[in-house]
TrEMBL record:
The chain crosses the membrane at residues 187-206, 218-237, 272-290, 302-322. It is a multi-pass membrane protein. This is Tumor suppressor candidate 3. Residues 1-30 form the signal peptide. GO terms for biological process: magnesium ion transport; protein N-linked glycosylation via asparagine. SUPFAM superfamilies: Thioredoxin-like. InterPro entries: OligosaccharylTrfase_OST3/OST6, Thioredoxin-like_sf. Its main location: endoplasmic reticulum. The lineage of its organism: Eukaryota, Metazoa, Chordata, Craniata, Vertebrata. GO terms for cellular component: oligosaccharyltransferase complex. Pfam families: OST3_OST6 (PF04756). The keyword Lipid metabolism does not apply.
Length: 332
């Protein structure tokens, strides 16, 4: 009877193969599980996004779909406080612009699963605010597909404003995703222009036999001053940048109407500057009237003092605002 012998080299090769299989199989299973989890997250985000352009999230959803890996998509999160008891008018204004931007992305031909828009309300995710050490709203943050958010991933709301176009530019810088903003048609401007033209046309028709008022220098001067006041107060900057009307500190509730930086302003600030310029101009007009008129000397003296008081008081107020924004003033 012939004896059989096992080749030791074959046995060694067999053991190595088994060892490699034992090592690789867990990794392969883990990778498959990771891919399945990522697929489920993307599918869920796409489902939510199909229902509404901005996905509402609480603390659990934020930690699972935004913070926790795996994730191959970028997320834009607006941290806000929209409940009426919070009295955050800026939050509502920013939310309107954010909705316009999200809708522009959702219904564009370039829409994909690489970018999602979400919102975390303080009353639904206070733990998220605490986790991120966030003490102001609204705040826009970008959470990249890989790595942690950097400083540039927080939108500079105070300096740039929250207009949809500015947000789209910031997103393009952070994600390379280009979003063309489409705003819903707004006919209020057209209606207002039509009413103005109708009013002017009706006035001219009623006064068709006496059009001397068209040559009234005072009327044209007042119209020119209104345009000058609007432009010098920063109304055009407000129209382009879309800044908030004012800023309310969520910690102490204090409302700021003057922005502390020379690179930005609030809408309320431009209104204050407009009124100050108008008061200073009124003072200069009174001073000129007191110097050129030929009326009673006592009356002219009163007009002069009132005009001088207007110029000194309101110009001092204007200078104090300038000093608060340009901290290096007076320059030496």
């Amino acid at each position: 009877m012939a004896s059989t012998r096992t080749n030791p080299i074959v046995n060694l090769h067999f053991l190595i193969v088994l060892l490699l299989l034992a090592i690789c199989l867990p990794f392969g299973g883990g990778q498959k599980k990771k891919e399945n989890l990522l697929s489920e997250k993307v599918e869920q985000m796409m489902e939510w996004s199909s229902r509404r352009s901005v996905i509402r999230m609480n603390g659990d959803k934020f930690r699972r779909f935004v913070k926790a890996p795996p994730r191959n998509y970028s997320v834009i999160v607006m941290f806000t406080a929209l409940q009426p008891q919070r009295q955050c008018s800026v939050c509502r204004q920013a939310n309107e612009e954010y909705q316009v931007l999200a809708n522009s992305w959702r219904y564009s031909s370039a829409f994909s699963n690489k970018l999602f828009f979400t919102v975390v309300d303080y009353d639904e995710g206070a733990d998220v605010f605490q986790q991120l050490n966030m003490n102001s709203a609204p705040t826009f943050m970008h959470f990249p597909a890989k790595g942690k958010p950097k400083r540039a991933d927080t939108f500079d709301l105070q300096r740039i404003g929250f207009a949809s176009e500015q947000l789209a530019k910031w997103i393009a810088d952070r994600t390379d995703v280009q979003i063309r903003v489409f705003r819903p048609p707004n006919y209020s401007g057209t209606i207002a222009l039509a009413l103005l033209v109708s009013l002017v046309g009706g006035l001219l028709y009623l006064r068709r036999n006496n059009l001397e008022f068209i040559y009234n220098k005072t009327g044209w001067a007042m119209a020119a001053l209104c345009v000058v006041f609007a432009m010098t107060s920063g109304q055009m900057w407000n129209h382009i940048r879309g800044p908030p009307y004012a800023h309310k500190n969520p910690q102490n509730g204090q409302v700021s109407y003057i922005h502390g930086s020379s690179q930005a302003q609030f809408v309320a600030e431009s209104h204050i500057i407009l009124l100050l310029n108008a008061a200073i101009t009124m003072g200069m007009v009174l001073l000129n009237e007191a110097a050129t008129s030929k009326g009673d000397v006592g009356k002219r003296r009163i007009i002069c003092l009132v005009g001088l008081g207007l110029v000194v008081f309101f110009f001092s107020f204007l200078l104090s605002i300038f000093r608060s924004k340009y901290h290096g003033y007076p320059y030496r």
